[in-house]
Structures are given as structure tokens and as C-alpha cells.
Amino acid sequence: MKILGREPAAWAAFASILLQAIGAFWADFDAETQAWVNAVVIAALGLIVAIMVHDGVIAAITGFVQATITLAVGLGLDWSAERQAAVLIFVTAAAQFAVRQTVTAPVPPLPAPAARRGPQGV
Length: 122
Description:
The protein is built from 4 helices and no strands. The protein has helices at 8-25, 31-53, 57-74, 81-100. It starts with 7 loop residues before the first helix and ends in a 22-residue tail after the last helix.
């Protein structure tokens, strides 16, 4: 399922980045407020993705981990950006590894191309 032609996970990532940019450049959020806003938006979008794709438990887990890290850092956890990225990369990779074997395609495969049927298309 797509929202305005984009996958829900792409919207979740975009919303997170947009909120961080707004907090960094335009709004005068303190660290705690920024953490709460990001945590809530990321968790909500992760949940929406999970509901929309039906096999999206992994998206919900990833969203939850992102929200948790964002909230923890905003409330004083002293992790560098590199450490946060490493944890998120690990969680995302583990989730993708797990989901690869359990997700089914929402549509059947396409029929073989006409070129494979022979020179006359027969």
C-alpha cells in the first residue's frame, strides 16, 4: 500500500528527518521537547506502517526502537550520533533479515514475457 505514491516507511523516515530539521533550524525546541515530538511521531508512523502492510511487525519494532533511542537521548542518554546510527542500522538489518522469510508478495508474479515464448510469440 502506498500513500501519495510512496511507501509508508519512506513517509516515516521523511517525517522524522523533517521534524529534526525543524527543531534544529527553525523552532527553538529544548532537547526534551524535541525528543518527545520525535518519539511520538516515529512510533506512530511505525505503527501505521505495521497496520497498513499487515506483515509490518518489523516496521513497528524498528519504529519503537527509533522512538526509544530518540527519547532516551533527549532525556539525557549520552550516545554519539554514530552510536545511535549503529544501533538503528543493526536493528533495521536484523529486522530485514527476519522479515525476508516471512513476508509474502501482495500480488501474484507477472506472466513470462512474450519474448520467451518464441520468435513468433507462440
